[in-house]
Design goal:
Elements: H1 3-12, H2 24-27, H3 32-42, H4 48-54, H5 61-72, H6 82-87, H7 89-96, H8 100-107, H9 111-117, H10 123-126, H11 130-136, H12 142-157, H13 160-167, H14 173-183, H15 192-207, H16 216-224, H17 231-243, H18 249-262, H19 269-277, H20 284-292, H21 294-304, H22 309-321, H23 326-334
Length: about 350
C-alpha cells in the first residue's frame, strides 16, 4: 500500500476515487505505526481544521485515530481556523470521543485568533453549543478564560425581556450557559437582570403560574444568588399566602427554604400558623418539613396562641395515627400537646 494514496484519500474524503486499493479494510486500520505515518504526512494535503470539520460526514476509523493523534500531539505548523471548529464543538468532540480537556487544550493553540474573532457582540452567533461552555469552565487555559469571560459579559448584556423568555425555557441556550457558569462559580457577579427575573418567577411559583422543575439546575440559581437579594421577594410571598392566595402542599415544599430562612415568618406568627401552616399540615411531606425545622416553627406556633388551634388539632389527629413517631411526639410536646391529648 502506498501511504501517499491513503493520505490523499483521507484528506479528500469520500469524493476521492478509490484507486490503489484504499478500501474499507485499509480505512479500518488503527495500528500505531499506520496512524503515526499518516499523521506525519496528512497536513501536507489538508490542514487540521478542515479534517476536523469534515470528519463527522466521513467517519472512518483510521481518520478518527489520525485526528486524535494530531489533537493530542500537535505538529509544528498545524493550521486551524478556530471559529468554525468552535461552532461545531459538540458534534466534533462527541464523534471523535476525545476528552473535552484534551480537545480544548489543543484548540488553545489558536487562543489569539479566538480573542480577535469571538466578541461579546457576536458570541451567540458563533457559540451555540452550551456543552462548550460547560467543558471550558472545567479547563484552565487561555481559550477557556476568553470563552468564559465573553460568555459572562454577553449574559450581563441581555435585557430583562430576554431573561424572562430564557428562564421560562430550561432548554434554552441562555438558561443552560447560565447554569454551567453558576455551577462552576464562573458567573460573578450574577447579572442584576437574572436576579430580577428570578424574583419574578418565585412570585409566579407562589401564585401557581410557574413551576420550577426539580432538576438540579434550578437549585443552582437559588444556591448561588445572594439571599439578601431575595429577602423582599420572600416576604412578599409570605404576605401573598397570608392575604391573597391559598397555599398548597406543592407550593409550600417548593418555597419552603425561602420561607423558612428568609421570609421573617416570626413577624406574623398568628397569620403564618393559620394561613400557611394549617392548610398544609395534613400532607406528610409538609408535616415532615415542619417537624424537621422545629427550631423555626415551634416559636411561631407558640407565639400564635389561639391562631394555632387549627394547626394543633391537625397535629392531634396525626398523633392518633402515628403514636410511635418519636419526632412527632417531641414536636407536639413542644407546642403544648401530649400524647394523651390525642386519645
Amino acid at each position: 500500500m502506498q501511504f501517499d494514496l491513503l493520505v490523499m484519500r483521507l484528506a479528500i474524503g469520500a469524493d476521492f476515487p478509490n484507486i490503489g486499493r484504499v478500501d474499507e479494510v485499509i480505512l479500518s486500520k488503527t495500528d500505531t505505526d499506520t496512524v503515526l505515518r499518516v499523521a506525519e504526512r496528512i497536513e501536507y494535503y489538508k490542514s487540521l481544521g478542515p479534517l476536523l470539520i469534515n470528519y463527522p460526514d466521513w467517519p472512518q476509523p483510521i481518520l478518527k485515530a489520525v485526528i486524535t493523534e494530531l489533537i493530542l500531539h500537535l505538529r509544528d505548523g498545524a493550521r486551524l481556523s478556530i471559529v468554525p471548529v468552535l461552532e461545531r464543538y459538540t458534534r466534533l468532540q462527541s464523534s471523535l470521543e476525545i476528552e473535552p480537556e484534551a480537545f480544548i487544550n489543543c484548540l488553545n493553540g489558536w487562543e489569539g485568533y479566538a480573542q480577535e474573532e469571538i466578541t461579546v457582540e457576536n458570541f451567540s452567533n458563533h457559540i451555540t453549543d452550551h456543552e462548550l461552555i460547560e467543558h471550558a469552565a472545567q479547563v484552565e487555559c487561555g481559550l477557556s478564560h476568553h470563552l468564559i469571560e465573553t460568555a459572562s459579559e454577553w449574559l450581563t448584556s441581555l435585557s430583562i425581556k430576554e431573561w424572562q423568555s430564557a428562564l421560562r425555557n430550561d432548554s434554552s441556550f441562555i438558561y443552560k450557559v447560565t447554569c454551567h457558569l453558576l455551577a462552576a462559580d464562573k458567573l460573578k457577579p450574577i447579572p442584576d437582570n437574572v436576579i430580577t427575573v428570578y424574583r419574578e418567577l418565585l412570585i409566579e411559583v407562589a401564585m401557581g403560574g410557574f413551576e420550577m422543575s426539580e432538576s438540579a439546575s434550578w437549585s443552582i440559581f437559588y444556591e448561588k444568588i445572594h439571599k439578601g437579594k431575595l429577602k423582599a421577594a420572600a416576604k412578599n410571598i409570605r404576605d401573598l399566602f397570608i392575604s391573597e392566595i391559598s397555599i398548597t402542599p406543592d407550593r409550600f415544599l417548593s418555597l419552603s427554604d425561602l420561607l423558612i430562612n428568609h421570609a421573617s415568618l416570626d413577624q406574623r406568627n398568628g397569620e403564618v400558623a393559620r394561613r400557611i401552616l394549617e392548610p398544609v399540615v395534613g400532607n406528610e411531606d409538609c408535616m415532615a418539613c415542619i417537624v424537621n425545622n422545629s427550631q423555626i416553627f415551634i416559636p411561631i406556633i407558640n407565639g400564635a396562641e389561639d391562631d394555632a388551634e387549627g394547626f394543633k388539632d391537625a397535629v392531634r389527629q396525626k398523633l392518633e395515627m402515628s403514636q410511635d413517631d418519636d419526632k412527632l411526639i417531641r414536636f407536639a410536646k413542644e407546642i403544648g400537646i401530649s400524647a394523651d391529648d390525642s386519645e
